[in-house]
Design brief:
By secondary structure, the chain is of the alpha/beta class. The protein contains 14 helices and 15 strands. It folds into 2 domains: about 150 residues, Aspartate Aminotransferase, domain 1, CATH 3.90.1150; about 260 residues, Aspartate Aminotransferase, domain 2 (3-Layer(aba) Sandwich), CATH 3.40.640.10. Helix 6 links the parallel strand 5 and strand 6. The structure holds pyridoxal-5'-phosphate. Pyridoxal-5'-phosphate binds next to helix 5.
Length: about 425
């Protein structure tokens, strides 16, 4: 307990920390105080390649022995290889990367790059989003985690992201819904001064706030608005990137290409803390003759670069993107079976191995977190560990999970929900 007392634990009252320890981890499993559990949130929806992958560990070890660090004014083959490999899994309009140490820091630098490139200041982002905890990324964030950054910085404007489940019945079709939200956004842009806006940031699928998949035509509409008003479109793929949704990046589910992509998490599965900003050829070219006013002591850290190169090899070798797409379909079917069985489930949202179960407010208790915490504890007792928020349970296992393991884990979920709702254990 000595350590527990000297270490801060994020996003909680420190007295609420339960003191649980991960004593071991391997593949899709974690051991919580010795108890083996499916890791159904890949920790923080980041350990996409699973725990303790020996190839990635070896690559990091070898790089560490060879050369762990160099000053950012120099280059080194592993840096170039990592940059090329990241660009290699993206459409070829993207030409340069800027490495960072986290997702928040990727968004911080994307804000700066967008402002430097456009010469404009205002930044739009959506309510219900999460973009990070640092001041800039916190100002982008639309959910309540932004409040720690209040009063907000001038020039950060929030718009509403369409949420199909919560606006049920209000729109006859996806198209009608998209048009409604796009028209509102267009008005907001004009009111904010259409020549003042550098970028619109969004998560192509809102992640941490519950896998909110936009209606058809919405992201295409955002792309058109950005083209019309010469605003950069920035997709935050920190959580949705790296196969999580069944494509390398979630934006690829639609006919759009953002100008800037930020990502982190699955890039190295957090074997090393690392992130990246990827920019299109126009932005890349601009900085040929303009000073890039960004930097960090740990820029393009060689261990992060080695982890990135090795991780991308693992994604390809194990066909993890295809596995996520394929097993995501199974996950969707199985979760929808549960929805038809338990009337407390309001909505299932699933894309690849990225799913959310949203419980009805009146059953789980008015969007408070108490009951979801209770459900999470019951699940953990049965060997199914995951994360939840408000009345939403996340399901996002490592992409290396196989069909049998997925079904076995979902059986645990089903039996816990059955005990809870059919047999009335609560
Ligand atoms: N953006 C999104 C979409 C995220 O989900 C997160 C973290 O969960 C971040 C940014 C921040 O990343 P980090 O926690 O690595 O700073």
């Amino acid at each position: 307990m000595e350590n527990a007392n000297s270490l801060f634990h994020p996003w909680m009252k420190q007295n609420d920390f339960q003191g649980k320890k991960i004593t071991d981890a391997d593949g899709i499993y974690i051991w919580i105080d010795g108890k083996k559990c499916f890791d159904m949130a890949s920790q923080s929806i980041n350990v996409n390649i699973g725990h303790r992958n020996s190839e990635v560990i070896r690559a990091i070890q070898e790089q560490c022995e060879k050369l762990p660090y160099i000053y950012s004014g120099f280059s080194n083959p592993i840096m170039d290889e990592a940059a090329r490999d990241v660009l290699g899994v993206l459409p070829n309009i993207y030409k340069k990367v800027y490495f960072t140490n986290s997702g928040s820091e990727a968004n911080e630098n994307a804000i700066k790059l967008a402002r430097m490139y456009t010469g404009k200041q205002k930044i739009f982002s959506s309510y219900n989003s999460y973009h990070g905890s640092t001041i800039g990324a916190g100002n982008l964030t639309g959910d309540q985690r932004r409040l720690a950054c209040e009063p907000g910085q001038v020039g950060f404007i929030k718009f509403n992201f369409p949420d199909k489940y919560h606006s049920k019945g209000q729109f006859r079709s996806d198209k009608e819904m998209s048009n409604f939200y796009l028209d509102l956004l267009r008005e907001q842009i004009i009111d904010e001064g259409q020549n003042n806006i550098a970028a619109i940031f969004l998560e192509p699928i809102i992640g941490g706030n519950g896998v909110i998949i936009p209606p058809d035509n919405y992201l295409e509409g955002i792309r058109e608005i950005c083209n019309e008003f010469k605003i950069l479109m920035v997709c935050d793929e920190v959580m949705t990137g790296w196969g999580r949704t069944g494509k390398w990046f979630a934006f690829e589910h639609w006919d759009i290409k953002p100008d800037i992509i930020t990502t982190s998490k699955g890039m190295t599965s957090s074997y090393v803390a690392f992130g990246v900003v990827v920019v299109n050829e126009h932005i890349a070219k601009y900085f040929d003759n303009h000073v890039l006013m960004c930097g960090s002591t740990n820029y393009a850290h060689l261990l992060g670069c080695a982890a990135t190169v090795a991780s991308i090899k693992v994604y390809k070798k194990l066909n993890l993107i295809e596995n996520s797409e394929l097993l995501g379909k199974l996950l969707n079917v199985e979760l929808n079976k549960m929805k038809s069985k338990y009337h407390s489930i309001g909505d299932i949202r699933c894309k690849g191995l990225f799913a959310a179960i949203e419980f009805k407010d009146n059953v789980m208790g008015k969007r408070d977190s108490v009951n979801i915490a209770y459900l999470i504890n019951l699940l953990e007792e049965k060997g199914f560990w995951t994360l939840g928020r408000r009345n939403i349970l996340m399901i996002a296992p490592p992409l290396i999970i196989n069909r049998e393991q997925l079904l076995e884990s979902l059986n645990i979920l089903d039996s816990v929900l059955e005990d809870l709702y059919m047999k009335g254990s609560k």
